[in-house]
Amino acid sequence: MDLRFDDADEAFRSEVAAWFAANLTGEFAELVGAGGPGREHEHLEARKGWERRLGRDGWIGLGWPESDGGRGLSWERQVIFYEEYARAGAPGRVGHIGEQLLGPTLLMFGTAEQRRRFLPGILDGTSLWCQGYSEPGAGSDLAAVSTRAALRDGEWHIDGQKVWTSLATEADWCFVLARTEPESTRHRGLSYLLVPMDQPGIEVRPIIQLTGTSEFNEVFLDDARAAEADVVGEPGQGWKVAMGTLALERGVSTFGQQMGFAREFDDVLATARANGAAEDPVVADRLLDSWMELQVLRHSAVMTLGAPAGTTPGSEANVAKLMWAQWHRNLGELAIDVAGAAGAVAAGFGDGELTAAQRLYLFTRADTIYGGSNEVQRTVIAQRMLGLPRGSV
Question: Residue 292, Cβ neighbours under 10 Å: how many?
């Protein structure tokens, strides 16, 4: 994909930049730079308000079809929006799971009624979602999920446990992968259920991380309920739908993430220049390598954006996950090395007083594990892209 911006695109860029300049003020001024990786605890209520502001002014669902409430914008203009979002220092999104994962999944696999019911709340920023995939015994091996659901009296009754569930404390809904055929194993007999979070059968317990904060959570489902109609795709065929969502998570939605990565790199570079670390030839080489790899990441993300609308990315999405996870973890290490002795001292562990470099370093230790570990990504690439036999890697 050859990404070029014409005059009309650049006019759109000016419109986007002007909107951010006008709206990241007043009640939202404190959100500039807030809520990034390892900082999901920051200004949550204000960031929910920011979602509603984005929705009010039509900045959610930019690429969704107009017939489903979106704006039907080109990939080029979506790229421009992400670039200007990062350039303005706009906050980490609390609605991205709905917009970038569940919404597009419904566009691919959902019924007209499901799209009518669930998409408007995502588009106006009032309905927040979380993802119920990983379990204590089924992290990277998603096919091993043991959460079960049975259909009784017009409702799905769900029992099990999910873990590493981002924003579960804030979400209104969760899309849950559960085993609905009792004797099924592995990829067969799974269903993709839409489950309301505000009900007696669901308990959320935050997980304290290395950063001292708790972006992730455990979710316990004890006879939790979902309506019979709230299954995406056919019952028992949830693996196909779940893989479609994962491809979105590792593919198209990562472009906005790349813009955040660029901002983090710029901060590390600015620190290195300010404290003299950039004069060290070894550090200078690492900074240059990091910058070049970031350009490769951006190119990869742009290529993923070029996939035809409504299609599911293939193994290239696994390549993208493998690449950015390793790069981001390396950036965290570089940030601490650039900080020098000050990077080794935590002002107040657990109370939000870590420096940006310390928070980046601690949070990125998990990048090569969550969302599918590096080992799993390499196996998928070897088997599905290169055609190598199972067990060869």
Answer: 9
